[in-house]
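Database export, one record per block. Field names are fixed; values are copied verbatim from the stored entry.
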Amino acid sequence: MNEVKLIPFEVNEVVSKADEAYPDGVEMIQAPEIWEESDRGRNRIVAVVDTGCQVDHPNLKSRIIGGKNFTKDYNADPDNYDDNNGHGTHVAGTIAAEKGADGIVGVAPEAKLLIVKVLNGEGSGTYESIISGIRYAIDWEGPNGEKVNVISMSLGGPSDLPELHEAIKDAIDQNISVVCAAGNEGDARADTPEYAYPGAYNEVIEVGASSFSRTLAPFSNTNDEIDLIAPGVDILSTFPESKYAVLSGTSMSAPHVSGALALLMNLSEKEFNRTLTEPEIYAQLIKRTVPIGYRNSAEGNGLLALNLVKQLEELFNIYTTAWNSKR
């Protein structure tokens, strides 16, 4: 089978200590504003299908519930899913890093992480390993009967492979949300589409990248399957050797959405008093987006803003009070 690679990303800076209590991306999507009502993602499992993860990183070691290695790294030891690249550790931190003395916090800091290493230290792997990793995440069951709620993938390749598509659809059928980075081959034009798979499949939640100034990142792929955008420029998160790094790419945008889904699943379950289906959770996600002025093929439904529903409710309460006072 053809080779799959990490969606290209840029390492801007690596540091030994992170001074930001809340990374800018976590704040920009308004995650802290819904932490209390969403239990910070507690009891949700996010499978990180990537290059592995530093399992003893101070901000991550308490969040990892298990994992498996599907590469030839570490003599193909299936129980060694450590990160010899850096990408997977950074993604994992954005999703669920736990606040430490010298570190940062993720979008859903009480969610658990299932580490699925499908890419080697050079950031490449086979479609066969990706498919095996997805199916492992679908079938995985924790010590207390836990099941995966979200699969997060910041990887891609040029081939639309039927077996890969089937694995994605099987995950959705099991009520698992699948989040994928859109890719970084963008040319800053929304009318010239760029596709990477599995991100371009209709069933997945495809995430493009924005800057902190609420502009579309020029490298972000554009196509008719983009669902939304999230911060992807100068993102601070965890990195191997118990360090922290600032990276850029749609690879950094996707985990913001993966963590957000863990929060929304808890929030929605409280509001509806039942477990929502994958399409229903998708609807809850999309209703918390704000258009920023680009074509749908560039920004999808808009920029993620998790507290938007509450803000709109407060706005309409003010309007309704003013209207009633006139009657």
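Remark 1: The chain has one domain: 3-325.
Remark 2: The longest strand covers residues 10-15.
End of record.
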